[in-house]
Design brief:
Elements lengths: L2 H21 L3 H9 L5 H22 L3 H24 L11 H19 L8 H22 L6 H7 L4 H25 L8 H22 L4 H24 L1
Helix pairs in contact: 1-2, 1-9, 2-3, 2-10, 3-8, 3-9, 4-6, 4-8, 5-10, 6-8, 7-8
Length: about 250
């Protein structure tokens, strides 16, 4: 991979890691969106796997309620795996041999949908009895979208925000969901032959800069008003998603 691509990867993951350090999510969303401007979604997803996995494992293990969160969310995370693998088995999404603009366009739509929920401050409430059937649906849908776009925030993040988790439980639940999503997507990428030694330098660059970005983000979190940052973040995602969607289908 040319040196200029490593510079692009470093810049993208510093930004994405910074956002994750501030609000606890956003690493795959931003990195997939920006890298898709310079490479295929399949290449971007392959580079993302290790940084996403390691940062989300850290987020999952950092909280105090892993056992309780795991017991509550196992139907959803199992469905994430099944949805991701079903799409991969069917030859859909990132691992498809077809036109890669399809994946970029779907990524744009997913980014716009996620940005819309953030900018509109949309909040849903899901009761305990509804979790039994809605959790697996949200998980399977997240898996299908993740297989097609490399982004696993829709609809998992709105769902987790709706089931009434406490702050620390929510952060840990997001980490668990993202960790499982990353592993499930990695299986699809490995089956497609997208994970190979040629990606060692880009992946290590992404990992190092993502960690540096997270450290910067934690510093920013203590100084930047959360509401201002949130609106800038979701506004940027909306514009990026619109660009990708229009470029894919024009």
């Amino acid at each position: 991979m040319p040196d200029e691509r490593l510079i692009i990867i470093a810049a993208v993951f510093v930004l994405a890691g910074s956002v994750k350090g501030v609000i606890g999510l956003g690493l795959p969303t931003i990195s997939m969106g920006l890298l898709a401007l310079a490479m295929t979604p399949l290449q971007a997803a392959a580079i993302l796997v290790l940084p996403s996995f390691l940062t989300n494992v850290w987020q999952t293990l950092a909280g105090p309620s892993l056992r309780a969160v795991s017991r509550r969310l196992w139907p959803m995370v199992l469905s994430i795996c099944l949805g991701t693998w079903l799409a991969g088995w069917a030859g859909a999404g990132l691992t498809s041999a077809g036109d890669t603009r399809y994946g970029s366009g779907l990524l744009g739509v997913a980014l716009m949908a996620y940005a819309g929920t953030g900018l509109g401050s949309i909040r849903f409430a899901v009761g305990k009895t509804q979790e039994r059937w809605l959790g697996p649906i949200a998980g399977a849908t997240t898996g299908l979208i993740a297989a097609a776009t490399g982004v696993f925030v829709i609809p998992s993040v709105p769902y987790l925000q709706a089931i009434g988790l406490e702050k620390e439980e929510l952060v840990q639940a997001l980490g668990l969901s993202f960790t499982v999503s990353t592993l499930a997507l990695a299986v699809n990428l490995a089956r497609a032959g997208a994970l190979n030694i040629a990606l060692a330098a880009p992946t290590l660059t992404a990992l190092a800069t993502a960690c540096a970005g997270m450290w910067l983000g934690q510093i920013m979190r203590s100084r930047l008003p959360p509401e201002i940052f949130r609106r800038c973040f979701f506004g940027g995602l909306l514009l990026l998603g619109a660009y990708l969607a229009v470029a894919a289908w024009r």
